[in-house]
Amino acid sequence: MTSNVEQTVLVINCGSSSVKFAIIDPKTGHVYLNGIAEALTLDDARIDWRFEGKEKQKDTLGAKADHQKAIDYLNNKILATAPELLKSICAVGHRIVQGGELYTEPTLVDDEVEAGIEKCIPFAPLHNPAHLIGIRAARKAFSTVPHVTVFDTAFHQTMPAVAYRFAIPEELYTKHGIRKYGAHGTSHGYVAKTVCEQLNADPNNFNVITCHLGNGASVSAVKNGKCLDTSMGLTPLDGLVMGTRCGEIDPSVVFFMCDVLGYKVEDVREIFNKKSGLAGISGTTSDWRGITEGYENHDEKCTLAFEMFCYRLAKFIASYYVPLGNVDAIVFTGGIGENSYLMRKRVIELLPAVFGVKIDEDLNSKARAYLGGSGPIHAPDSKVKVVVVPTNEELVIAQSAFKFVK
Ligand code: ADP
Description:
By secondary structure, the protein is of the alpha/beta class.
Protein backbone atom coordinates (compact mmCIF):
# COMPACT_ATOMS: atom_id res chain seq x y z
CA MET A 1 0.00 0.00 0.00
CA THR A 2 2.65 2.51 0.99
CA SER A 3 5.74 1.04 -0.63
CA ASN A 4 5.94 3.59 -3.45
CA VAL A 5 5.20 6.67 -1.40
CA GLU A 6 7.57 9.49 -2.28
CA GLN A 7 6.60 12.79 -0.73
CA THR A 8 3.50 13.45 1.33
CA VAL A 9 2.11 16.21 3.51
CA LEU A 10 0.59 15.71 6.94
CA VAL A 11 -2.50 17.96 7.20
CA ILE A 12 -3.61 18.86 10.71
CA ASN A 13 -6.86 20.55 11.73
CA CYS A 14 -7.08 21.16 15.48
CA GLY A 15 -10.36 22.01 17.19
CA SER A 16 -10.80 22.79 20.87
CA SER A 17 -11.15 19.10 21.77
CA SER A 18 -10.19 17.33 18.56
CA VAL A 19 -7.37 16.82 16.07
CA LYS A 20 -8.23 15.76 12.52
CA PHE A 21 -5.28 14.48 10.50
CA ALA A 22 -4.59 13.20 7.01
CA ILE A 23 -1.51 12.21 5.04
CA ILE A 24 -1.90 13.29 1.44
CA ASP A 25 0.08 13.16 -1.78
CA PRO A 26 0.10 16.87 -2.73
CA LYS A 27 0.46 16.11 -6.42
CA THR A 28 -2.44 13.68 -6.83
CA GLY A 29 -4.58 14.30 -3.75
CA HIS A 30 -4.27 10.62 -2.87
CA VAL A 31 -5.08 10.09 0.84
CA TYR A 32 -2.88 7.46 2.53
CA LEU A 33 -4.16 7.89 6.05
CA ASN A 34 -6.84 9.89 7.79
CA GLY A 35 -8.27 10.01 11.26
CA ILE A 36 -9.47 12.00 14.21
CA ALA A 37 -8.65 12.26 17.91
CA GLU A 38 -11.74 13.34 19.84
CA ALA A 39 -12.86 14.26 23.36
CA LEU A 40 -9.34 15.52 24.10
CA THR A 41 -8.77 16.68 27.69
CA LEU A 42 -11.91 14.75 28.70
CA ASP A 43 -12.21 11.36 30.40
CA ASP A 44 -12.95 9.42 27.21
CA ALA A 45 -10.27 10.87 24.93
CA ARG A 46 -9.98 8.55 21.93
CA ILE A 47 -8.58 8.28 18.44
CA ASP A 48 -9.60 6.50 15.26
CA TRP A 49 -7.83 6.22 11.93
CA ARG A 50 -7.90 4.42 8.63
CA PHE A 51 -5.07 3.54 6.27
CA GLU A 52 -6.17 3.62 2.64
CA GLY A 53 -8.05 0.44 1.74
CA LYS A 54 -7.94 -0.90 5.31
CA GLU A 55 -10.50 -1.22 8.11
CA LYS A 56 -10.97 1.65 10.52
CA GLN A 57 -8.98 1.22 13.76
CA LYS A 58 -9.51 2.87 17.11
CA ASP A 59 -7.96 3.21 20.54
CA THR A 60 -8.42 5.14 23.76
CA LEU A 61 -5.85 7.80 24.56
CA GLY A 62 -6.27 7.76 28.35
CA ALA A 63 -8.28 10.11 30.56
CA LYS A 64 -7.56 13.81 29.94
CA ALA A 65 -5.17 13.08 27.07
CA ASP A 66 -4.40 16.38 25.31
CA HIS A 67 -3.50 17.47 21.77
CA GLN A 68 0.20 16.73 22.33
CA LYS A 69 -0.65 13.18 23.37
CA ALA A 70 -2.84 12.72 20.28
CA ILE A 71 -0.12 13.95 17.94
CA ASP A 72 2.51 11.83 19.71
CA TYR A 73 0.19 8.82 19.33
CA LEU A 74 -0.04 9.49 15.61
CA ASN A 75 3.74 9.76 15.36
CA ASN A 76 4.85 6.96 17.68
CA LYS A 77 2.06 4.42 17.41
CA ILE A 78 0.13 4.80 14.16
CA LEU A 79 3.02 5.82 11.93
CA ALA A 80 5.34 3.32 13.63
CA THR A 81 3.37 0.67 11.76
CA ALA A 82 3.99 2.46 8.45
CA PRO A 83 7.65 3.59 8.44
CA GLU A 84 7.67 4.30 4.69
CA LEU A 85 4.75 6.68 5.10
CA LEU A 86 6.36 8.38 8.10
CA LYS A 87 9.55 8.88 6.08
CA SER A 88 7.58 10.35 3.19
CA ILE A 89 6.21 13.30 5.21
CA CYS A 90 8.05 16.35 3.88
CA ALA A 91 5.86 19.09 5.38
CA VAL A 92 3.03 19.65 7.81
CA GLY A 93 0.10 21.90 6.82
CA HIS A 94 -2.08 23.44 9.52
CA ARG A 95 -5.59 24.78 8.97
CA ILE A 96 -6.08 28.08 10.81
CA VAL A 97 -9.52 29.69 11.10
CA GLN A 98 -8.47 33.31 11.72
CA GLY A 99 -5.47 35.20 10.38
CA GLY A 100 -7.08 38.65 10.61
CA GLU A 101 -5.44 41.21 8.33
CA LEU A 102 -2.01 39.76 9.10
CA TYR A 103 -2.04 36.86 6.65
CA THR A 104 -3.10 36.91 3.03
CA GLU A 105 -1.42 33.66 2.00
CA PRO A 106 0.01 30.39 3.35
CA THR A 107 2.88 31.13 5.70
CA LEU A 108 5.87 29.20 7.00
CA VAL A 109 5.49 28.78 10.75
CA ASP A 110 8.01 30.39 13.07
CA ASP A 111 7.68 31.94 16.51
CA GLU A 112 6.51 35.21 14.98
CA VAL A 113 3.66 33.47 13.13
CA GLU A 114 2.63 31.73 16.35
CA ALA A 115 2.49 35.19 17.97
CA GLY A 116 0.38 36.46 15.04
CA ILE A 117 -2.14 33.63 15.45
CA GLU A 118 -2.26 34.45 19.16
CA LYS A 119 -3.01 38.09 18.33
CA CYS A 120 -6.06 36.98 16.30
CA ILE A 121 -7.55 34.96 19.20
CA PRO A 122 -10.21 37.61 20.04
CA PHE A 123 -11.78 37.00 16.59
CA ALA A 124 -11.75 33.19 16.94
CA PRO A 125 -11.68 32.45 20.67
CA LEU A 126 -12.55 28.76 20.27
CA HIS A 127 -10.43 27.94 17.25
CA ASN A 128 -7.13 29.86 17.32
CA PRO A 129 -6.02 28.70 20.82
CA ALA A 130 -6.59 25.09 19.70
CA HIS A 131 -4.65 25.70 16.47
CA LEU A 132 -1.71 27.03 18.49
CA ILE A 133 -1.67 23.98 20.75
CA GLY A 134 -1.69 21.81 17.62
CA ILE A 135 1.11 23.72 15.93
CA ARG A 136 3.30 23.57 19.03
CA ALA A 137 2.66 19.85 19.53
CA ALA A 138 3.28 19.05 15.85
CA ARG A 139 6.44 21.16 15.67
CA LYS A 140 7.82 19.08 18.54
CA ALA A 141 6.75 15.73 17.06
CA PHE A 142 7.73 16.48 13.44
CA SER A 143 10.65 18.79 14.06
CA THR A 144 12.67 18.19 10.89
CA VAL A 145 10.11 19.32 8.29
CA PRO A 146 8.61 22.75 7.53
CA HIS A 147 5.26 23.61 9.09
CA VAL A 148 2.93 25.83 7.08
CA THR A 149 -0.25 27.60 8.15
CA VAL A 150 -3.18 28.01 5.74
CA PHE A 151 -5.69 30.63 6.87
CA ASP A 152 -9.47 30.38 6.21
CA THR A 153 -9.65 34.17 6.18
CA ALA A 154 -6.78 34.75 3.70
CA PHE A 155 -8.87 34.30 0.53
CA HIS A 156 -11.25 37.07 1.65
CA GLN A 157 -8.52 39.66 2.17
CA THR A 158 -9.05 40.93 -1.39
CA MET A 159 -12.48 42.35 -0.49
CA PRO A 160 -12.71 46.12 -0.94
CA ALA A 161 -13.47 48.35 2.07
CA VAL A 162 -17.00 48.93 0.74
CA ALA A 163 -17.66 45.23 1.38
CA TYR A 164 -15.59 44.52 4.49
CA ARG A 165 -16.25 47.66 6.59
CA PHE A 166 -19.28 47.87 8.90
CA ALA A 167 -21.13 51.18 9.01
CA ILE A 168 -19.98 51.95 12.55
CA PRO A 169 -17.46 54.55 13.80
CA GLU A 170 -14.12 54.29 12.02
CA GLU A 171 -11.98 53.82 15.11
CA LEU A 172 -13.73 50.55 15.93
CA TYR A 173 -12.06 49.30 12.76
CA THR A 174 -8.75 51.19 12.87
CA LYS A 175 -8.10 50.65 16.59
CA HIS A 176 -9.83 47.35 17.21
CA GLY A 177 -9.97 45.58 13.84
CA ILE A 178 -13.78 45.21 13.80
CA ARG A 179 -14.63 44.32 10.18
CA LYS A 180 -15.81 41.46 8.01
CA TYR A 181 -13.17 38.71 7.75
CA GLY A 182 -15.15 35.86 6.16
CA ALA A 183 -14.72 32.11 6.58
CA HIS A 184 -14.33 28.89 4.55
CA GLY A 185 -11.88 30.83 2.33
CA THR A 186 -9.85 27.74 1.43
CA SER A 187 -12.98 26.06 0.12
CA HIS A 188 -14.31 29.12 -1.77
CA GLY A 189 -10.91 29.61 -3.42
CA TYR A 190 -10.61 25.94 -4.34
CA VAL A 191 -14.04 25.57 -5.95
CA ALA A 192 -13.75 28.95 -7.74
CA LYS A 193 -10.52 27.71 -9.37
CA THR A 194 -11.70 24.14 -9.97
CA VAL A 195 -14.91 25.19 -11.72
CA CYS A 196 -12.82 27.12 -14.31
CA GLU A 197 -10.72 24.00 -14.94
CA GLN A 198 -13.88 21.90 -15.29
CA LEU A 199 -15.57 24.32 -17.68
CA ASN A 200 -12.36 25.10 -19.55
CA ALA A 201 -12.90 28.78 -18.71
CA ASP A 202 -10.30 31.53 -18.35
CA PRO A 203 -9.89 32.04 -14.56
CA ASN A 204 -8.83 35.65 -15.20
CA ASN A 205 -12.12 36.40 -16.89
CA PHE A 206 -14.72 34.54 -14.87
CA ASN A 207 -17.30 35.68 -12.33
CA VAL A 208 -18.58 33.05 -9.95
CA ILE A 209 -20.77 32.85 -6.87
CA THR A 210 -19.52 30.06 -4.62
CA CYS A 211 -21.91 28.52 -2.07
CA HIS A 212 -20.17 26.48 0.66
CA LEU A 213 -23.05 24.78 2.49
CA GLY A 214 -22.21 22.47 5.38
CA ASN A 215 -22.97 22.73 9.10
CA GLY A 216 -21.36 26.14 8.72
CA ALA A 217 -22.37 27.88 5.49
CA SER A 218 -21.23 30.89 3.52
CA VAL A 219 -21.47 32.34 0.03
CA SER A 220 -18.87 34.45 -1.81
CA ALA A 221 -18.72 36.67 -4.88
CA VAL A 222 -15.50 35.86 -6.76
CA LYS A 223 -14.29 37.89 -9.76
CA ASN A 224 -11.31 36.57 -11.72
CA GLY A 225 -10.25 34.42 -8.75
CA LYS A 226 -10.48 37.27 -6.22
CA CYS A 227 -13.08 37.53 -3.49
CA LEU A 228 -15.16 40.72 -3.66
CA ASP A 229 -17.69 39.93 -0.94
CA THR A 230 -18.72 37.13 1.40
CA SER A 231 -21.56 36.41 3.78
CA MET A 232 -19.61 35.66 6.98
CA GLY A 233 -18.68 38.65 9.12
CA LEU A 234 -16.37 39.40 12.03
CA THR A 235 -16.85 35.76 13.03
CA PRO A 236 -18.49 32.74 11.38
CA LEU A 237 -21.90 33.67 12.82
CA ASP A 238 -23.09 36.02 10.09
CA GLY A 239 -24.91 35.47 6.80
CA LEU A 240 -26.75 32.29 5.91
CA VAL A 241 -29.00 30.13 8.09
CA MET A 242 -26.71 27.34 9.38
CA GLY A 243 -27.03 24.07 11.31
CA THR A 244 -27.10 25.70 14.74
CA ARG A 245 -26.07 29.31 13.94
CA CYS A 246 -28.59 32.05 13.19
CA GLY A 247 -26.66 33.95 10.51
CA GLU A 248 -27.70 37.51 9.64
CA ILE A 249 -29.85 39.10 12.38
CA ASP A 250 -30.83 42.58 13.56
CA PRO A 251 -28.35 43.50 16.38
CA SER A 252 -31.32 44.91 18.31
CA VAL A 253 -32.38 41.33 19.04
CA VAL A 254 -29.35 41.18 21.37
CA PHE A 255 -30.35 44.42 23.14
CA PHE A 256 -33.95 43.22 23.47
CA MET A 257 -32.94 39.83 24.87
CA CYS A 258 -30.54 41.42 27.37
CA ASP A 259 -32.39 44.62 28.33
CA VAL A 260 -35.99 43.44 28.24
CA LEU A 261 -35.82 39.67 28.73
CA GLY A 262 -32.87 39.63 31.15
CA TYR A 263 -30.55 37.29 29.23
CA LYS A 264 -26.81 37.61 29.81
CA VAL A 265 -24.58 38.27 26.78
CA GLU A 266 -23.01 34.82 27.13
CA ASP A 267 -26.50 33.23 27.01
CA VAL A 268 -27.26 35.08 23.77
CA ARG A 269 -23.90 33.98 22.34
CA GLU A 270 -24.69 30.37 23.21
CA ILE A 271 -28.22 30.58 21.73
CA PHE A 272 -27.09 32.27 18.48
CA ASN A 273 -24.19 29.83 17.98
CA LYS A 274 -25.54 26.52 19.24
CA LYS A 275 -29.33 26.59 19.44
CA SER A 276 -30.39 28.58 16.39
CA GLY A 277 -30.35 28.01 12.63
CA LEU A 278 -31.99 24.82 11.37
CA ALA A 279 -32.00 23.40 14.92
CA GLY A 280 -33.75 26.47 16.34
CA ILE A 281 -36.36 26.71 13.59
CA SER A 282 -37.20 23.00 13.36
CA GLY A 283 -36.91 22.35 17.10
CA THR A 284 -35.68 18.87 16.25
CA THR A 285 -32.51 18.71 14.16
CA SER A 286 -29.57 20.70 12.85
CA ASP A 287 -28.89 18.07 10.19
CA TRP A 288 -30.00 18.87 6.64
CA ARG A 289 -31.00 15.26 5.95
CA GLY A 290 -33.44 15.41 8.88
CA ILE A 291 -34.79 18.79 7.70
CA THR A 292 -35.28 17.41 4.18
CA GLU A 293 -37.09 14.35 5.48
CA GLY A 294 -39.45 16.57 7.49
CA TYR A 295 -39.97 18.82 4.45
CA GLU A 296 -40.88 15.85 2.26
CA ASN A 297 -43.30 14.64 4.96
CA HIS A 298 -44.88 18.12 5.15
CA ASP A 299 -43.70 18.77 8.71
CA GLU A 300 -44.50 22.45 9.22
CA LYS A 301 -41.39 23.43 11.17
CA CYS A 302 -38.97 21.51 8.96
CA THR A 303 -40.62 23.05 5.91
CA LEU A 304 -40.08 26.53 7.35
CA ALA A 305 -36.42 25.68 8.13
CA PHE A 306 -35.95 24.36 4.56
CA GLU A 307 -37.59 27.43 3.03
CA MET A 308 -35.70 29.91 5.22
CA PHE A 309 -32.36 28.29 4.35
CA CYS A 310 -33.12 28.45 0.60
CA TYR A 311 -34.67 31.94 0.71
CA ARG A 312 -31.70 33.47 2.55
CA LEU A 313 -29.23 31.82 0.19
CA ALA A 314 -31.15 32.95 -2.91
CA LYS A 315 -31.22 36.53 -1.55
CA PHE A 316 -27.42 36.50 -1.06
CA ILE A 317 -26.86 35.07 -4.54
CA ALA A 318 -29.06 37.78 -6.07
CA SER A 319 -27.26 40.49 -4.09
CA TYR A 320 -23.87 39.37 -5.46
CA TYR A 321 -24.89 40.54 -8.91
CA VAL A 322 -24.01 43.98 -7.49
CA PRO A 323 -20.25 43.41 -6.98
CA LEU A 324 -19.95 41.03 -9.96
CA GLY A 325 -22.02 42.86 -12.61
CA ASN A 326 -22.61 39.69 -14.54
CA VAL A 327 -22.35 36.13 -13.31
CA ASP A 328 -20.82 33.26 -15.29
CA ALA A 329 -21.43 30.47 -12.79
CA ILE A 330 -22.97 29.50 -9.48
CA VAL A 331 -21.14 26.71 -7.65
CA PHE A 332 -22.53 24.49 -4.89
CA THR A 333 -20.20 22.70 -2.45
CA GLY A 334 -20.04 21.38 1.16
CA GLY A 335 -22.10 18.46 2.52
CA ILE A 336 -25.45 20.14 1.70
CA GLY A 337 -24.35 21.84 -1.53
CA GLU A 338 -22.82 18.67 -2.94
CA ASN A 339 -25.74 16.40 -2.09
CA SER A 340 -29.06 18.18 -1.70
CA TYR A 341 -30.63 18.39 -5.16
CA LEU A 342 -33.90 19.53 -3.54
CA MET A 343 -32.15 22.55 -1.99
CA ARG A 344 -30.42 23.43 -5.28
CA LYS A 345 -33.68 23.16 -7.21
CA ARG A 346 -35.50 25.42 -4.73
CA VAL A 347 -32.72 28.05 -4.57
CA ILE A 348 -32.52 28.36 -8.36
CA GLU A 349 -36.35 28.49 -8.53
CA LEU A 350 -36.30 31.45 -6.11
CA LEU A 351 -33.95 33.51 -8.29
CA PRO A 352 -35.85 36.05 -10.41
CA ALA A 353 -36.47 34.95 -14.01
CA VAL A 354 -34.58 38.02 -15.24
CA PHE A 355 -31.30 36.35 -14.19
CA GLY A 356 -32.05 33.48 -16.59
CA VAL A 357 -30.65 30.72 -14.34
CA LYS A 358 -32.13 27.34 -15.24
CA ILE A 359 -31.19 23.87 -14.10
CA ASP A 360 -31.58 20.52 -15.78
CA GLU A 361 -33.67 18.46 -13.33
CA ASP A 362 -32.13 15.19 -14.38
CA LEU A 363 -28.51 16.38 -14.09
CA ASN A 364 -29.39 18.04 -10.78
CA SER A 365 -30.86 14.93 -9.20
CA LYS A 366 -27.90 12.81 -10.34
CA ALA A 367 -25.31 15.23 -8.92
CA ARG A 368 -25.02 13.79 -5.45
CA ALA A 369 -21.45 13.55 -4.19
CA TYR A 370 -22.24 10.65 -1.87
CA LEU A 371 -23.17 8.65 -4.98
CA GLY A 372 -20.09 9.90 -6.83
CA GLY A 373 -22.03 12.49 -8.85
CA SER A 374 -20.99 16.10 -9.48
CA GLY A 375 -20.42 18.54 -12.35
CA PRO A 376 -22.64 20.94 -14.36
CA ILE A 377 -26.38 20.86 -13.63
CA HIS A 378 -27.62 23.82 -15.72
CA ALA A 379 -30.03 23.59 -18.64
CA PRO A 380 -28.60 24.21 -22.15
CA ASP A 381 -30.39 27.57 -22.41
CA SER A 382 -29.36 28.83 -18.95
CA LYS A 383 -27.60 32.22 -18.99
CA VAL A 384 -25.52 31.09 -16.02
CA LYS A 385 -23.71 27.81 -15.51
CA VAL A 386 -24.61 25.96 -12.32
CA VAL A 387 -22.06 23.43 -11.13
CA VAL A 388 -21.64 21.03 -8.21
CA VAL A 389 -17.95 20.92 -7.21
CA PRO A 390 -16.92 18.74 -4.24
CA THR A 391 -14.60 20.74 -2.03
CA ASN A 392 -11.17 19.52 -0.94
CA GLU A 393 -9.68 21.79 1.70
CA GLU A 394 -7.13 19.16 2.78
CA LEU A 395 -5.69 19.03 -0.73
CA VAL A 396 -5.30 22.83 -0.83
CA ILE A 397 -3.54 22.77 2.53
CA ALA A 398 -1.26 19.92 1.37
CA GLN A 399 -0.41 21.74 -1.88
CA SER A 400 0.18 25.03 -0.07
CA ALA A 401 2.55 23.36 2.40
CA PHE A 402 4.34 21.44 -0.33
CA LYS A 403 5.33 24.67 -2.09
CA PHE A 404 7.57 25.46 0.86
CA VAL A 405 9.42 22.15 0.54
CA LYS A 406 10.76 23.08 -2.85
P1 ADP B 1 -19.06 20.67 8.14
O1 ADP B 1 -19.43 22.12 8.00
O2 ADP B 1 -19.19 20.16 9.53
O3 ADP B 1 -17.79 20.27 7.44
P2 ADP B 1 -20.34 19.11 6.03
O4 ADP B 1 -19.77 19.86 4.87
O5 ADP B 1 -19.87 17.72 6.25
O6 ADP B 1 -20.25 19.92 7.37
O7 ADP B 1 -21.93 19.10 5.83
C1 ADP B 1 -22.77 18.56 6.79
C2 ADP B 1 -24.20 18.76 6.31
O8 ADP B 1 -24.35 18.10 5.04
C3 ADP B 1 -25.24 18.16 7.25
O9 ADP B 1 -26.32 19.07 7.43
C4 ADP B 1 -25.73 16.94 6.49
O10 ADP B 1 -27.07 16.63 6.77
C5 ADP B 1 -25.56 17.38 5.04
N1 ADP B 1 -25.50 16.19 4.18
C6 ADP B 1 -24.55 15.24 4.17
N2 ADP B 1 -24.87 14.25 3.30
C7 ADP B 1 -26.05 14.60 2.73
C8 ADP B 1 -26.92 14.02 1.77
N3 ADP B 1 -26.64 12.86 1.20
N4 ADP B 1 -28.05 14.69 1.42
C9 ADP B 1 -28.36 15.87 2.00
N5 ADP B 1 -27.59 16.47 2.93
C10 ADP B 1 -26.45 15.87 3.29
